[in-house]
Amino acid sequence: HRQFLRDAIQRAVQCAMTAPNHKVTEPTTFHRIIAPSAASEKLLDIVYSVTLERLLSRKISGHEACRSEAMRKREKWSDIPAFLVATVRGMGDQCQSS
């Protein structure tokens, strides 16, 4: 099972690295984040913040319920032993606006 996952991840990375883009102006970079680490804690903080912001913007529940759900998601992600994060140079503030 692990070998299948490694092969799938390797194929996905290879596809992304060779995907056509305009004059290689937006090359993709991959980062492996092993937990626990400072980088994984920062990622968990981002998960919390993004989840909280999205829940609050939907106005489905009160502020405290949204905070509780965002923390639940952060804690769930904290059980993940490693992450593969893809970043794209040249996107600038586009990530912030979505």
**Helicity level:** 55-70%
Helix-strand pattern, N to C? HEHHEH
> Can you give the mean pLDDT?
85
Strand content: 5-15%
Instruction: Quickly count the helices.
Output: 4
Shape: extended
Weakly predicted, low-confidence segments: 93-98
N-C termini distance = 35 Å
Class computed from helices, strands and strand pairing: alpha+beta
Biggest sheet strand line-up = 1-2
Radius of gyration: 17 Å
**Biggest beta sheet attributes:** 2 strands, antiparallel
Describe the protein:
Helices cover 58% and strands 14% of the residues. The model is unreliable at 93-98 (pLDDT under 50). Strands 1-2 form a two-stranded antiparallel ribbon. The longest helix has 21 residues, at 38-58. The chain has 98 residues and is α+β, with helices and mostly antiparallel strands. The radius of gyration is 17 Å and the shape is extended.
